[in-house]
Amino acid sequence: MFDPDSYREQSRRIWGEMASGWRDRNDWMMRVTGPVNAWLVENLDPQPGQSILEVASGTGELGFLVAERVGSEGRVISTDFSPAMVEVAGRFGEARGASNVEHKVLDAEQMDLDEASVDGVVCRWGYMLMADPAAALKESRRVLRPGGRFAFAVWASPELNPWAAVPGMTLVQRGHMPPPEPGAPGIFAMADPARINDLVTGAGFPEPEIQEIAFTFDYPDSDDVWEAIVRIAGPLAEVINHLDEDEREATRAAILENLAGFRNEDGSYSAPAASWGIVSGR
Ligand SMILES: C[S@@+](CC[C@H](N)C(=O)[O-])C[C@H]1O[C@@H](n2cnc3c(N)ncnc32)[C@H](O)[C@@H]1O
Q: How far apart are the CA of 260 and the centre of ligand 1, in A?
């Protein structure tokens, strides 16, 4: 039985534990996931002087790109429910001199923000992880002013995302994780465009446009593939990091073997990835 409260507590803890991995891999992440950020910024279309809310912002990089568009008269409210992630984003903001970005701990399912208080809401890879994405989408609509824009990304199907589906499937095969429950939160929980449409319109937004954004996760070698899994892959990392040493090594070997089809001749890896980009408004 899915218990939303214990899921939320566990999720916040796991993402807090991932914060240092996301910090250390930030440059790599920005480089390989650039097409998704570009799509989101273009479709959010932030204007100088606007206030934009970023939901589940992790290290905050998408918000920093938005901040360049809204300029010194505008502001970005960069938020995440993990205080450790917000701290990382705050440090990156200071290092960039992003004085128009405010960092705040905020649960997307229950936002401590006024109704109709922002001109745009943006989120990359957040809603599908939430215990109650319908509540988070309703909150996103509540804080958005009439006429405001809403753009977000979630992961498309496992078949289009072997970089995550293969390690997940390997953990299931080895008995370390149950297969994902339909409808439960997780990386592929919003992979079905019909569900996205129902959730978005159910929250009161007009019918969204949904587009596929394909890109590639590149890793210089197998050590890097493994590091990416154990330091940033949230729930998968949590499972692996609790295995005993022998099983951890055997799991590493099994995951790399299952990813062998994505290994290049020089030992680097290129694994396909695809997100849905969704845009709507109020
Ligand atoms: C996969 S990471 C994505 C981070 C960032 N948006 C990016 O694309 O680089 C998911 C993030 O969602 C955050 N998150 C999960 N559930 C949340 C919730 N209910 N409210 C706010 N943030 C949440 C986690 O703390 C984590 O930082």
A: 29
